[in-house]
Amino acid sequence: MKSLKCASFDGNLQVVNIESKFLNALPSFNIIGLANTTIKESENRVKSALLTLNFKFPPQKIIINLSPSDIPKRGSHFDLAIAILIALQKESFDESFFVFGELGLDGSVKSTNSLFSVLLFLSKQVISAKVIVPKSIALRAATIPNFRVFAVENLEDGIKFFMDEEFAKSCEVVGTHPLFANTLEILGKNYVPNLEFELDFSDIKGQARAKRASLIAAAGFHNVLYEGSPGCGKSMCAKRLRYILPPQSIDEVMLSAAYESLDNKDADFSALRPFRSPHHTSTRGSIFGGGSNLARVGEVALANGGELFFDELPHFGKQILESLREPLEDNRILISRVNSKTKYQTKFLFAAAMNPCPCGNLFSKTQSCVCSEMEIKRYKSTISAPLLDRIDLYVAMDEVSKDDKSSVTSQEMYEKVLYAFKAQKTRAQTELNAKLSDQDVGKICLLDSDAKSVLDMAISKFSLSQRGINKSLKVARTIADLAGKEVIGKSEILESLSFRVRSLG
What we know:
This protein has 21 helices and 20 strands. Strand 1 (about 1-10) and strand 2 (about 15-25) form a beta hairpin. The strands form 6 sheets. The protein has a 5-stranded parallel beta sheet. The chain is of the alpha/beta class. It folds into 2 domains: about 1-175, Ribosomal Protein S5, domain 2 (2-Layer Sandwich); about 185-435, 3-Layer(aba) Sandwich (Rossmann fold). Helix 8 packs parallel to helix 17 (about 410-425) and helix 8 (about 210-220) packs across helix 20 (about 465-485). The termini are far apart. This is YifB family Mg chelatase-like AAA ATPase. It holds the Pfam family Mg_chelatase_C. One of its GO terms (molecular function) is ATP binding. InterPro entries: CHLI-like (IPR045006), Mg_chelat-rel (IPR004482), Mg_chelat-rel_C (IPR025158), Mg_chelatse_chII-like_cat_dom (IPR000523), P-loop_NTPase (IPR027417), Ribosomal_Su5_D2-typ_SF (IPR020568), Ribsml_uS5_D2-typ_fold_subgr (IPR014721).
């Protein structure tokens, strides 16, 4: 028996051992191991490709087993490995390689739409691997850290690779993505800083409190809600948040690219964290993922590691907003279908913007609000108290004034975020402040005596839930990090509490 490695992705990556054996029985070619139609069709592609090399099939039964056999597999990238195993059944060769590639009828090796995402997810699961891929995708694959990548153009090259050591060496492709050339090292781990500020906070005039909230949100990855009159800069703040978010680790960069590739995009590595902004008319399936048979990725998963922005929050359906509570709280989403159960990470910063009333003039000092109390109540009724409790920072934004001026640039804010980020990583935190577990909150969010007294008063006065208490502590921890303080003081807890959502009613 001979074997090579491959992988299948169906919401979750599964490393697959491809095993081959020839049996003394009536000649036939069988692929077993819950292979889908695409893999079954490889029988004809493999036969045709081998015949172009004048390969003579033995008068035996050929069995190809995809192990583990109790997990469904899909994809046409198994072709090359199957053909090599048949051709080299009587030879000795290194069986530790991962082999990917679809075969043309003429023996050419092709890439597939999903192959790059499979390789990216594989890099998250396997620390190091020797990988054979089609030549057309080799340069991109070589930029994935911890992979030794070898390129082949056709089946003949693939067979020769295992038989000719010198030829195998010539197939290796070495490449480093320029993004990983300049990294930031903290406690031995490398991070990729963003150096581009296409959208700048200097474009926003005034709104000092909104900018402060944006800085805190970015530094700790806290959820934020902007409320204000039309044109005051709510969406501008939310869209600029992405550019001042903390740097990603190399693993996070690869995971972001892997998730983006699931959205049928030609993904590339980027220092910028993901940004997703679905329209309020989007379906529940497009936002949370779904599909009739296979679990497709949705906006909340595509925003993982970055920002999910809901503009005009009350216009989203109540069912959508209530469904948002799970990914916000658990940082994951499980999509269950008849043929698959898929779990995606949803560690995103949730940003939302809304008007104070249907006409938008409730906060205005110059315009009259024409909405009735019932209309305002109905407008805000879609946003439930449990959802509001998951908002870390609430900002009631000011009207635009002729005296408003630019006060800070995105680069200046990013430098402050980076300072707070280093403080969090120096404490050996695996998660940013907003994503700390309840157990870690007690260890990391330490209060002095004055701050504890203030928090106790706030708990009694505002009837804070346990979630509200923890979120206030996490925000205060971020404010203390921005100020360079090891222990949370009175001023930090007061500022944190000032951003709590009291009521939108």
